[in-house]
Amino acid sequence: MNKDDTVYVILLLISIPIGFLFKNYAFNSKLKASLSSAIGFLMVLIVCPYDIYHSLLMTCVNTLIVSIVHPKLVAYLSFIWCFGYLLFFRLTQLFGLPKPVPYANAVQLILTLKCVGLAFEVHDSFNRKKQLYMLNESKNMVRKNSADNENASDDIDDKIGKLKLDIEFKSIEPSLFQTILYSYCYIGILTGPYFKYRTYADWLSVKNCRLDSVKFMKKRGRIAPFIIIIFLVLSKFVSFQDPLKDGFYDSTLAYRLIYMVLIFTLFRFRFYIAWIFAEFSCMSAGFGAYPICTVPKPGAGPTKLKELKNFDAKNSKSSDYSFDCINNIDEYKCETAKTVKEVLHFWNMTVQFWMANNVYKRVPLKKLGQPITMAVSAYWHGLHPGYYLSMLTTSPCILAENLMEKGFKRRFVSEKYYKVYNMATWFFRTREFDYMSIGFILLSYDETIKFWKSIYFIGHFACLFFILVGFFLTKLFKPSKKTN
């Protein structure tokens, strides 16, 4: 571990005891916001002192956009500015500027989501007020025109009630200064998780948090020691730079296949560790805690607002709460998921929410929703060709799984052997992820293709084989009566 990595890990660990200070001392909301942002800014300054101007420039201009531009247009202008600046950030060398350090990239990614997400929250808040006004007008018209039309009036009342709950628990009206403070809050500034401004505002409003954070951290981190030990052991045998060293491709095919498995384990376990400790920093501060009865979702926060309004916080216990709002990874489900599609649901879940809420649902033509969202996600991750090579391989994998499910499992596999089939799909999925991870690790087009070529593009040919088998079985044989 180099010097930069050591500093990064230390800051990640320090954020946990800092959280206890915020939770245990009754700071007022203004002091809490100022202190948490000052700490966050200091962390950014430590990890990327010469590149901090990037985050400052993007955040300050976005703050002006949110403060000045009409709410109808604010989200779209914010999106164009932040994602446009992300392109400039990655091409600084073309403009004679030094290339930003890797941790500056991590900060820029998180801030891009927060800045654009904030603009969409402002946009949605405006739309809710507009809808409420229109519903009230409709209600008055119904009352004037038809005294007997009680059902129509009741329907409007239900919509108004729901909308008022959305306004009370989802809408925001941040000031210019609050927008900047939200952007630099120390929680998640280096690693995530992503959280909405409303989640941040809810945390600021809590004056005396009585949650037993240690209990939540013990439960969340019970698997962490095993992950850390495996990570440390593996890091002694393999590294991300091995394929770039002389003599690597002189090794046997078997070694390269084993290396692929080991290096992807190292790759994802590194993320597991970072995200678990990032969640610890949230838990120690009581950040993102919502009543279980409100069914909080990663990134989104509470989804049942009636229950939230009726919740008795004064007589509640720690066991009544959940930190699902800031849960970024379900490592058990990622490891045991049978298909590629399942894994994607449990990986980086708060970012998945951002992409779904701010991109997928906003696309007018639903047929274009998925490809546009995937394109935005790929662009957000980076411009390295390896990212795109790996992401483009995801679709054939999912197609192969779907066709084999439809053509083979439903026609030839009895319920007695479902577990065997599921184990086979799990093995295929894990090996495909090993294969696709090479693009994320080696980054460049030439190095990724060179590695895949050295193992005869086995991942692509496996996908093609199962796509053809599944397709022909689907066309040649009818599903069994039990399946129907």
Layout of strands and helices, then pairs:
Layout (H helix, E strand, L loop, with lengths): L2 H22 L4 H19 L4 H17 L2 H20 L11 H44 L4 H20 L6 H8 L13 H9 L7 H8 L3 H12 L17 H33 L4 E2 L13 H6 L10 E2 L8 H6 L3 H7 L2 H10 L7 H16 L3 H28 L5 H25 L2 H10 L3 H19 L8
Antiparallel strand pairs: 1-2
Helix pairs in contact: 1-2, 1-11, 2-7, 3-4, 3-5, 3-7, 4-5, 5-6, 9-11, 10-11, 11-18, 17-18, 17-20, 18-19
Protein described:
The protein has helices at residues 3-24, 29-47, 52-68, 71-90, 102-145, 150-169, 176-183, 197-205, 213-220, 224-235, 253-285, 305-310, 331-336, 340-346, 349-358, 366-381, 385-412, 418-442, 445-454, 458-476; strands spanning 290-291, 321-322. With 484 residues, it is mainly alpha-helical. The protein has a two-stranded antiparallel ribbon. The longest helix is centred in the first third of the chain and has 44 residues, at 102-145. The mean pLDDT is 92.
